[in-house]
Amino acid sequence: MAFAQGSRSGLSYLKEVTFGTTPAGNFQALAYNTHSLNLSKDRVQGNEIQPDRMLRVDRHGNRQSAGDVVVDLRADDFDEWLEAAMFGTWDTTPVASPDILKTGVDLQTFSIEDAANDIAQYRVFTGCSVSSMAVSIAPNQMVTTTFSMVGKDMTVSGTGKTVDAVSTNQPFDAYSGDMQIGDVGGATSKAIVTGLEFTVDNAINPTFVVGDDSTPQLEYGMSTIEGTLTAYFEDADLLNRFLNETESEMIVSVDDPSGANLYTFGFPRIKVNGADVPVDGPTSRIITMPFVAIYDDTTGTNMYIERPETV
Question: How many CB atoms within 10 Å of residue 59?
């Protein structure tokens, strides 16, 4: 008897036109590290009291799909997932300028296939959207991104989808870009950063109704973008941004070894909400700065992503 192996598993997706309905067409294979996509069901129990103290009724209730997909971020491959996380669409109209993606208001969903190829079992999760996206940028690692998905349902089949091959794009690393911070609307300068983590949270949830055990639509909340910056404590500049409640602009760029796929994450207006500088030993001291990104009138967004211009 064969057991499914992680090394023989594949993950692919197709963008939906109608929520929860898998459209015709080939799925696109993804390069991924791990995933935890699963279907869950609530339990509905009877309330009656029995003199022998034993339950008589236990049924399955509302169902939904959810889980995390962890990837090493790279050019092109996750552009549609970035759109879903931002509720926006890439603007390709700027002439001789990078394409830009800003926070928007459009919920976008996917059908995602988890293929256990060695045992020919294929789970398809429908109506999946990016509830949150967590990005980690640090030395000596790839740019790790976790897409936390919330969806409608799941089916299983012995026949897989037709899947286009995964790309050969290389993952981003922390050595091929830089990070800058400065006053809002002013000049930014490079900071000696040891790490940056941030999360885009859309607060997506199912909306259950009478007559259906899966959600007819997903609801969502505000775009909440928060993160933590760590840097070497070399002067009072970063510390004063917290002390003086100085609104700041932060820009971080990443690239792959080709040097031709620069992606930039821009936070045009952030508020620093802490500046801890502990002594953890005899080596360099690190300042830790939690921040929140808020709406900026000039750019019309709380965050943007830029990619190389597409034709």
Answer: 10
